[in-house]
Amino acid sequence: MSHANKTLLPIGFEDLIAPRVGHAHQILVDIMATFTSFDYTLVEPPLLEYEESLLAAPDAPKSQDIFRFIDPISHRTIGVRGDITLQVVRLAKDHLSDAPRPLRLAYYGHVLRIANTALRPQRQYMQLGLEQIGGDAHAEVEVLQVALEALHCVGVRDICLDFVLPTLVRRYIANIPENSQKILAARNIGSIKQQIRDSELNSEIGKVLEFLLLLPPNPANALEQLSHHQAFSDDHALFGQLRSIMSTIRSSHPDVLLSLDLIEQYGFTYKTGIAYNLYAKGQNTSLGRGGRYQADTEPACGVSLNLNNLLVNSQPSPSTKKLLIPYNTDFKALRLLRADGWTVVFSDTPESQFGVQHYYRNGAIHSFTSS
For the whole model, what pTM was predicted? Predict the structure, then answer.
């Protein structure tokens, strides 16, 4: 098929073919195996729910942010999920309310987004994650350590753990003009100062935002400065929790780079405590994000990963050993060969093909290069 005749897909959607789709499948298998090895039980909420169910949570997406259509059977509006975390919260409430706590759950599935951005171009991607509901003070560290271990298992190296304190900034940006919020998100400190001078932004709030913008990325130094600022005198317990988490991560995963970004708010609308983004060094796209939130009446924390972004930053498995075999090969022999790690390719043509360098004949394995 010529390039001119290729099917045009909607913006933000793509076909996956080999070897990329095989790599993606292996990442999925390895990460879920890591989650379950820490006793996180797999659950699977549906791709579609009634609109009111998807939008029921206090911080759920707005109706204009999800794909919607009319169910031809019930004639009610159905929505396609744009996130799985809140579905897991609903599932836990509906089916696992009597299960022992803490409740450790893992999941994977596709999600759809209405809009995309330059840094987040996909509108369909595979979301993988784990949630701990009803846990104690150890839950945040546990979830984070399991997520870091999963990334290590799929070959992601040079991880940057970027901490966020969304509630800290939320109380200041809630009442500032929308254009000021955009300027803040763009980290434009010059424009913030100009708005203060022009009285477009409350001077007291503006100075606090300016202070936050100038904080060093080193979390220890940033927390030291925050602790001495009178605007955050009631947040010392939160800062202590963050210091404790960072100390544990430095001990368990010393190769992980720690940073602090108090301006970032994207993706943290329902987070109620310490949160974070996970990056690979030198990359702008997040591998995933997580943090503490409220699951109905219970405390909870979790992390979700973006499989599409993991594809770029993880190491693929070594190439598969392929073996050319005749069609009449006995299947008992095939089982032994496959158990020994060979991928078998049926063919009666006695020559190298499909990238195969070995062939099976008369009960023995031979190399084409040595023939």
Answer: 0.88
